[in-house]
Design brief:
The chain is mainly beta. The chain is 3% helix and 54% strand. It has one helix and 24 strands. The strands form six sheets. Strands 1-24-23-22 form a four-stranded antiparallel sheet, with helices on one face. A four-stranded antiparallel sheet has the order 2-3-4-5, with no helix packed on it. The chain is globular.
Length: 270
């Protein structure tokens, strides 16, 4: 049985562990939160529909603002637009991963998901530290959760519609190459995280579970969260051995999520 660290939120996304705190976006609560290991939550900054999170080398927080289609920068006191992606992304942007050099990789829906449009492939975008926007890779099938491996050599991207994790060699200048399938998955992935052993944890919202996957696709562990959607995850904690699992009783609809307040952070030792 998982432990509930935090509950009563609208819809949580984009978890990142940093400097003794878990940072999460309450996507439909319109705020970025920090959470201590004993479950004390604090609002870091209010943002309309935040999703992916990351940091520039100077410590500034980057936030993917989904509906605004912009990457915002919060320096601890002021919230500004770091990059406007509206001309690159016709629909909502999504999760984001920032490498140690400050390159932010941003996924996008690529289609009008909320109004029932058919899925369409779309580019993965890269925002450089100076705020310039570039196409990092083309034709991803709804890029969602992303992580960089511990040696900074590889970017892993969960393609939700593609039911796979795609790998790219990652250069110091943020360029990607050697695109390949890292793992075919048994279910649609949402958020992902990587542990100290290099295995990838995958949130599977359709089947209400988190799985740990090896390169090649072997599943080595499953954590079921019956009746709750598995949305995203992060590995952290003071000893680096805690899986923070973001779950929800809703599928992400804004009005329902704000009414039900069924989102939670659950934990499991890994």
């Amino acid at each position: 049985m998982s432990n509930v660290l935090l509950s009563g939120r609208a819809f949580l996304e984009g978890p990142r562990w940093r400097d003794g705190l878990l940072y999460v976006s309450d996507m439909h609560g319109d705020a970025v939160l920090s959470v201590t290991e004993d479950g004390q939550a604090c609002t870091v900054v209010e943002v309309d529909r935040p999703s992916g999170l990351g940091w520039l080398p100077d410590g500034s927080l980057l936030i993917a603002a989904m509906a605004q289609r912009a990457v915002l920068r919060f320096d601890g006191s002021e919230l500004t637009v770091h990059a406007d992606l509206s001309s690159w992304a016709p629909f909502d942007i999504n999760d984001m991963c920032v490498d140690r050099h400050g390159h932010a990789f941003v996924g996008q829906f690529g289609y009008d998901m909320w109004n029932g449009a058919r899925p369409a492939a779309a580019p993965l975008l890269r925002v450089d530290p100076d705020g310039s926007v570039h196409e990092a890779a083309d034709a991803l099938r709804m890029a969602n959760g992303m992580v960089v491996t511990s040696d900074d050599s590889t970017l892993l991207v969960a393609e939700s519609v593609g039911k796979s994790i795609t790998a790219f060699d990652l250069a110091a200048d943020g360029s990607l190459s050697n695109r390949r399938v890292w793992a075919e998955l048994p279910d649609y992935p949402d958020g992902i995280a990587i542990d100290a052993a290099g295995e990838v944890w995958v949130a599977c919202p359709v089947s209400d579970k988190f799985i740990r996957v090896l390169e090649g696709g072997d599943v080595t562990r499953t954590i079921d969260v019956p009746g709750r959607r598995a949305i995203a995850c992060a590995v952290g904690g003071s000893d680096g051995e805690v899986l923070f699992m973001l779950t929800s009783t809703t599928q992400g609809g804004r009005d329902e999520s704000r009414q039900v307040l069924g989102a939670a952070v659950e934990t499991e030792r890994v």
